[in-house]
Amino acid sequence: MKIAVVVFPGTNCEHDIAHALALAGGEPDLVWHTDDDLSGAEGIVLPGGFAHGDYLRTGAIARFSPVMSEVERLATQGVPTLGICNGFQILCEAGLLPGALVANMGLKFICKPVHLRVESTKSVLTSAAAVGQVLQIPLNSYEGNFVADDVNAIEDEGLVVLRYSDTEGRIRESANPNGSTNAIACVSNAGGNVVGLMPHPERASEQILGSADGMVLVESFVESVRSVRV
Amino acid sequence: MKLTFEVTISRKPGLSDPEGTTTLKALHHLGYSGVERASFGRVISIDIEAKNERAARELVDQMCTKLLANPVIESYAIDLAT
Fold this sequence. Notes:
The complex is a heterodimer. Chain A is an alpha/beta fold. Chain A has 5 helices and 11 strands; from the N terminus they run βαββαβαββββαβββα. Chain A has helices at about 15-25, 65-75, 85-95, 150-155, 215-230; strands spanning about 1-5, 25-30, 45, 80-85, 100, 110-120, 135-140, 145, 160-165, 185-190, 195. In chain A, the strands form 2 sheets. Chain A has a 9-stranded mixed beta sheet, with helices on both faces. The radius of gyration of chain A is 16 Å and the shape is globular. The termini of chain A are close together. Chain B has one domain (about 1-80): Mth169, Chain: A (2-Layer Sandwich). In chain B, about 35% of the residues lie in helices and about 30% in strands. Chain B has helices spanning about 20-30, 55-70; strands spanning about 1-10, 40-50, 75-80. In chain B, strands 2-1-3 form a 3-stranded antiparallel beta sheet, covered by helices on one side. Chain B is elongated, with a radius of gyration of 16 Å. The interface between A and B is medium-sized, with 22 and 14 residues.
């Protein structure tokens, strides 16, 4: 079960997510962004980092990398596709996910563990989680503030997968680290097979890292790759 | 002919604009209490070779929708630089 982990110039979390995917029983395969043939990939991950230096807008240049036409083709066919942090920004720029990510409210780069409440288990990232479950996972971004031109449509269609919360799972302004609209940390497409989130589950994949809460997400994804098989 | 266009990319009104909000607060702090909005954007200067202004403008417009602006959060204006 090959999971293509796409590496752009400036990507820097590919080994971390590959490690976590392997821990969950997945078979990650690092793929350079100029590769325009992903046939054989049963899952796709766009990891965190600063693809193409974040020039113009985060993800704006990366979405035109040769590999992205393959990502779009497979994602549209239903292949589980995950964007973490910068990968989330790229999926939004590519139009595979709704919304966009802008500078954090307060204009600070935020690097700290945050709490997330699971809102939906219909996505490939949360199929093994429970609605209401609270996860502690690190956030590491400057442009993590989720905005959308029609956030009500995203809510109505049930596309919100995770929200920033306090330790008890309550949604509060004080627990929203970056000003994201409706505290949205993670969204999916309508099919649930394309998912993007700002926090880094791979950095909470083993107890030695301070939390293994991210593994339920990584395991959900690997299990989805196993069961979807487009 | 060679032409220079200035493309101005602006955040759509109503969407979160943390740079604008922070700058507005700073201006108020400095006593400019009449300021109602400070909005951030970017200006991209494009030199382009084309057969006439109309053709060039069409190309720049294409560039805006494809790459230079994100239609989800941004609007754009194209001006011929003098």
